[in-house]
Amino acid sequence: MKDYDVIIIGGGPAGMSALIWCHSTGLRGIMLEKSPELGGQMLQMYHRILDYPGLMTENGREMRDHFLAHLNELQLSWKTGCVINQLDLSELGIPGESKFKTSGVSFSATRDHSHYAGRNVVVIGGGDSAVENALILARVCPRVTLIHRSGNFRARDEWIKEARENPRIEFLEGYIPMAIEGTDRVERILLKSMRTGAETHLETSGVFIKIGIAHIPKSLETWSKWTQTVTSSQTGVREPLSIWSMPPAMSAHPPV
Fold first, then answer.
1. Structural domain of residue 21, as residue ranges?
2. Which residue in 30, 80, 205, 249 has a CA-CA distance of 20 to 30 Å to 158?
3. Each residue's pLDDT tens digit, 45-57
């Protein structure tokens, strides 16, 4: 077993960038990823990427391949399929969500869209990933209902415009999900109006949940070897798991 100065948890774009940075400063680093392959959220990006400086790709997987080539060129170290705790997708926390995770509840249209061909589905969320998932599903589903609690979508304007112009996508704004219901698989979702409080059912064969990234598990909130680690995934804070009390080789650099 080799000794490393730095262990990086998560093999997404941030993890890969951190591994390269460690190499450039002379630190021996290894990156650990729980999935079978590197890439993280990049693997869920289906559309063209046009806003990354110096590199335009057809999708996130192609961009991941460029990142991976860089790691291979530097002969850096990583392992896949071995991480227990790291960022994950947020869940609704409502009745029926866990019950139907393998029979109608999904967190990725990129992975699961073919299973819902010819069926009506709903997507919950208002960011890039929610609108992108709605566009992916509209290719194979006759009706895709995009549900958002306020209607103030955070997704990029061009994707919202494309979704609103798609005859297969319906926007249902001002509603929150209360329960996912069915017998052996998802059959309907219970919704509550944010304005009136009235509840209504919507028939659906699938519920795609795209409401952001979950916080790092409680088990990593304190890490005895360091003074403190950052566990919030919200904007405006240090990166998740960045170390406030740094190893000597990094002490000249302020926390980011």
1. 6-88+214-250
2. 205
3. 888 888 888 889 9
